[in-house]
Amino acid sequence: MKHLALIMDGNRRWARANKLSALMGHDNGANTLKDIARAVAEQGIPFLSVFAFSTENWRRSPEEVSGLLQLMRKFLMSETQSLVDENIRLVIIGDRTAFDKGFLELFETCEAASAHCTGLVLTVAINYGGQQDILQAISEAQKQFPGEEISSDMIKSCLMTSHLPPVDLLIRTGGEKRVSNFLLWDLSYAELYFSDKFWPDFSSEDLNQAVADFQHRTRRFGGDVASASEQS
Fold first, then answer.
1. E strand or H helix at 212, and its extent?
2. pLDDT in tens, 71-88
């Protein structure tokens, strides 16, 4: 497996079940991300992409949105050095126009600090939507390749995920069974795995179970039998 994607769902429901605030759920979810990223790196999977904040999440209450943004800021400021120490490269994708100058500088600083790392590539999607990414990529491809027939390779080169290979496995926690506008282009032939556990309760053992399930699947990529090179 080259590329694992995660939709980290269930933070708020975990908080309600434990009689805690929604922000406490998100805070515990951030701690889970640290543990899972480390476990993914230990498994030798080179790419991990996670959905931290979607374009639709702005519809939540102002209090929750503000708290989520503060948690993101806290995570980036406190954990970037740990990522560097573990040779993990951080890449942030999404529409940055909604963020203030301080946030934009933080994004750039964190990415630059880990740019030399050669281990796991951790891509964090913040204010990201898969449909929006495809639309902007098509528009950009038309600008970059005027007069040419636009190919899938051209579009991929203009996506925010241009640095990523196709997703092999998508894991979604929290019991929901949908992809929620995440990495739509790169999920084309991904295997899907749904866990009933809320994200803060998802452990490295649960990750191992998902990866083991993936390894027992036969991927055909639209054909009869997948070639050895296609079996990640």
1. helix 204-215
2. 899 999 999 999 999 999
